[in-house]
Amino acid sequence: MTNLGSENLTHDDPIQGDPAQSDPARSLYNSDDRRQILALARETLELSTSTRQTPPIDLDMLPPALRRPAACFVSLHRRVDGALRGCTGTLVARRPLAVEIVEITIQTAFNDPRFTPVRAAEVPDLRIEISVLTPPQPLAFDSPDDLIARLRPHIDGVTLRLNARRATFLPQVWDAYPDPVIFLGLLSEKMGYEPDAWRDPRLEVETYQAVVVEES
């Protein structure tokens, strides 16, 4: 459950899927962009956990893709078993992607309320996954059945808003819960409501896509 006054969100374990499905905007970032995205996140994680400092960013030296404002989520997984060690992010593009990666990597390492802060000794055994989000778009629908019909499993990330609460699932979560009724029920529970809250006529829905960049 996240208050609407906060742009930063936690996220549950984003399960791996077919890159062609979960990464519809793949052409936005070439192989060099992706290497630099991961290198920046890795350097940030290592430096922040060992010295509490952040790497300097010279935007003029970065490719255009990392200078453009973009929202992202940063996930940390244990290499040994794939278990989630932290995942937070923002849905709204506020700053250049490079700056956002640094800030969200630090936020995930130290401020995911579900986990203790990451220690420097853990860092070599953690795998980084970054989901760069496209701008969210309102999804118009006429009824609960129409909502189900308009969702695109494995492609759309989904944000539900009801009253003063909101919650989101990244597109990767469809791989674990491909049934839209179950998917929306769990997302309703994440907001802090009953599983059928997504049927409320006051519900607002936004969708977005994610470019997934991850370490092997």
Please tag this protein with its features.
6 helices; five-stranded antiparallel sheet; globular; 2 domains; alpha+beta; single chain; Glycoprotein, Type 4 Pilin; Dna Ligase, domain 1; disordered N terminus; 216 residues
Mean pLDDT: 89
CATH superfamily of the largest domain: Hypothetical protein ph0010, domain 1
| SS-based class | alpha+beta
Strand content is 15-25%
Number of helices: 6
- The CATH level-2 architecture of the largest domain is identified as 2-Layer Sandwich
Helix and strand run: EEHHHEEHEEHEEHEE
**Count of folded domains:** 2
Assembly form of the protein = single chain
Q: Identify low-pLDDT runs.
A: 1-7, 14-24
> How many extended strands?
10
CATH fold label of the largest domain: Glycoprotein, Type 4 Pilin
Strand order of the largest sheet: 1-8-7-9-6
Rounded to the nearest angstrom, the distance between the terminal CA atoms is 31 Å
Helix content: 25-40%
- Characterize the biggest β-sheet: 5 strands, antiparallel
Identify the overall geometry.
Answer: globular
Q: What does this entry show, briefly?
A:
The protein is an alpha+beta fold and 216 residues long. It contains six helices and ten strands; from the N terminus they run E-E-H-H-H-E-E-H-E-E-H-E-E-H-E-E.
Question: Could you walk me through the main structural features you see in this protein, from its secondary elements to its overall organization?
Answer:
The chain is globular, with a radius of gyration of 17 Å. With 216 residues, the chain is an alpha+beta fold. Strand 7 and strand 8 form a beta hairpin. It has 6 helices and 10 strands. The strands form 2 sheets. A 5-stranded antiparallel β-sheet has the order 1-8-7-9-6, with helices on one face. A 5-stranded antiparallel β-sheet has the order 2-4-3-5-10, with helices on one face. The protein starts with a strand and ends with a strand.
